[in-house]
Design a protein that fits this description.
By secondary structure, this protein is an all-alpha fold. The chain has 1 helix and no strands.
Length: 57
């Protein structure tokens, strides 16, 4: 009896660990996508500012 309770608890713990790991990976993926988007937008803004400055000369 005690063995099965422990086994169930270990299985539940393992499942929770996997779920947490998956959530963490998803969160990191979203963070990276956001950072990449900001980097792209920053590059576009700097390019436009340079073009505007050159056009103003």
């Amino acid at each position: 009896m005690m063995r099965t309770v422990r086994s169930k608890a270990e299985a539940q713990f393992t499942a929770t660990q996997k779920k947490n790991e998956k959530a963490l990976k998803e969160k990191e993926k979203l963070r990276k996508e956001k950072a990449d988007q900001l980097k792209r937008l920053r590059a576009l803004r700097l390019e436009k500012e340079a073009a505007d400055k050159k056009a103003a000369e």
